[in-house]
Amino acid sequence: MKILVTNDDGIDSPGIHALVHALRTIGHVTVVAPDRQQSAVGHALTVSSPLRAIPFHRDGEMFGYAINGTPADCVKLGISSLLTAKPDLVVSGINHGANTSINILYSGTVSAATEAMMMGIPAIAVSLTSFSYDADMSGAADYATRIAQQMTSYNLPKGTLLNVNVPAIPAGLLKGMRFTQLSKSMWEDKYEKRYDPMEREYYWIRGTYHTIEADGNTDDGAVAEGYVSVTPIHYQLTDIHTLQSLRAL
Hints:
Elements: E1 2-6, H1 14-23, E2 28-34, E3 53-58, E4 61-67, H2 71-82, E5 89-96, H3 108-118, E6 123-128, H4 138-154, E7 160-166, E8 177-179, E9 184-195, E10 201-213, H5 219-224, E11 228-234, H6 240-248
Parallel strand pairs: 1-2, 1-5, 2-4, 5-6, 6-7, 8-11
Antiparallel strand pairs: 3-4, 7-11, 9-10
């Protein structure tokens, strides 16, 4: 199996290292990832500056290509220009922090998988519900590998990707896997005013995440109960019901 791995935390993050180490047990892995933190950039593409692919080494060995762009850039550039053959699977992660519910709209991790899906390639986005760079990634890496192995048996239709969220608990305490839907949630955002050393104002976003409806059948609910959440995601943005109503006018 030929696997392309990317992320939005940067090519030097612990999450992508754990993911690559696990996926190498089931296939040939190529890494094309941002050269720096790109969280919450969504599906942005770089159009006003050139992209550079710099070989990145880890522990004295070639690890992958570091790209001065977004996660979606990495997928597009990797598949179109850097890889010698089309990958069988794209896996994005392991992200530091949950990508449940409304967060998929902001997530560079999920957007990278979405770009692969749009290019006709099966894709998985994987996130761990912890922002700590010391978090144990072993459980998330293990489940990502299991899901990657089972992708063909899921018979996903074209235009659908899998969004995986793993609780940040010891791997041995994970209760298993649930197929879920997105919960209903919202961010209550505030911008904190601060001052730099020159006494100039700037603002830093601070948000509180609120789940509105999150039972055990939702991603947030399953994760809260200690299960790995796997949510099939597809994008049909047209409001068909309203469209039919408007046409009836």
